[in-house]
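Input record, target 12 of the design panel.
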């Protein structure tokens, strides 16, 4: 398939455009000057917030394209209108878990035959490196690999964007579970708190997505998002907050065994979250390998002035 020239404005379809990351990707694509389409699914029914969000995109210049995962031909018709498809379908257990639905998107792209690149919903841990993940959280990685295998089997050009924890879920709360706000008095530290983790603001992840989707350097590549100033240990993150807030938190150091001690007693979604936290904060799965022959977003796009975690946390002071 002919690849879009870098810098040329591209017709992009965002699937999952009303979600937390998806809405940011839509905005970033519009800001980048891409001709932006958003899949309008009839399943949203009378969800007024999603309807209003779609209409706000339209006012900004986006095109709304009807299509349903229960209607294959509608998906084929939708993807035939664009050069690139970006999926931002949710893949977390405590919200809607829609990763497998992308198989229908792959089938539609394969039949349409015109799409020059597909960016499936990834963005976090690299699923190709998570074969050892503990269940039930391993389901996320298994399903993402199923999507990758389907993309490969269909011969679809692609880019996989991976490698960071979203600041909204892991940064503002100092990596505490069950809240998205910083703790006021006490903080749990995982292990010794010195495992390196990568944090990224969702707006920045969206900007990298909008830039990489027609870049020939990233065609059929994995792009890691590793903002240098945001490669921090949990302890460093806590210390940034303490400096901003002017108060020292009482720290409880939690061993790996204690962290997983009662995992089987938890709900499935909580078990999945505990497993993911363990891989990130105890094993260091985001930083235990080099980028190698793949690409790194901040080096490709130094013009993106990404938000550092001290800037991110400052809003909570």
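The sequence produced for target 12 reads:
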């Amino acid at each position: 398939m002919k690849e879009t020239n870098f810098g040329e404005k591209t017709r992009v379809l965002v699937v999952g455009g009303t979600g937390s990351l998806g809405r940011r990707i839509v905005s970033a694509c519009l800001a980048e000057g891409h001709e932006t389409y958003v899949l309008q699914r009839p399943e949203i029914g009378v969800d007024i917030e999603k309807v209003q969000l779609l209409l706000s995109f339209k006012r900004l210049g986006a095109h709304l394209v009807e299509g349903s995962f229960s209607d294959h031909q509608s998906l084929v018709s939708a993807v035939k209108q664009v050069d690139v498809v970006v999926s931002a379908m949710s893949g977390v257990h405590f919200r809607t878990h829609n990763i497998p639905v992308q198989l229908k998107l792959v089938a539609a792209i394969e039949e349409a035959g015109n799409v020059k690149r597909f960016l499936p919903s990834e963005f976090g841990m690299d699923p190709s490196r998570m074969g050892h993940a503990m269940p039930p959280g391993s389901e996320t990685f298994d399903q993402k690999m199923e999507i990758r295998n389907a993309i490969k089997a269909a011969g679809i050009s692609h880019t996989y964007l991976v490698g960071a924890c979203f600041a909204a879920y892991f940064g503002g709360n100092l990596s505490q579970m069950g809240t998205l706000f910083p703790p006021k008095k006490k903080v749990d530290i995982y292990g010794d708190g010195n495992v390196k983790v990568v944090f990224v603001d969702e707006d920045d992840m969206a900007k990298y997505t909008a830039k990489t989707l027609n870049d020939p350097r990233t065609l059929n590549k994995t792009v890691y998002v590793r903002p240098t100033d945001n490669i921090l240990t949990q302890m460093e993150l806590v210390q940034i907050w303490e400096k901003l807030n002017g108060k020292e938190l009482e720290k409880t150091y939690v061993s790996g065994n204690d962290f997983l001690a009662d995992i089987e007693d938890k709900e499935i979604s909580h078990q999945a979250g505990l497993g993911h936290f363990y891989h990130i904060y105890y094993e260091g799965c985001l930083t235990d390998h080099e980028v190698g022959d793949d690409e790194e977003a901040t080096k490709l796009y130094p013009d993106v002035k990404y938000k550092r975690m001290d800037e991110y946390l400052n809003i909570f002071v």
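The first strand starts at residue 11 and ends at 15.
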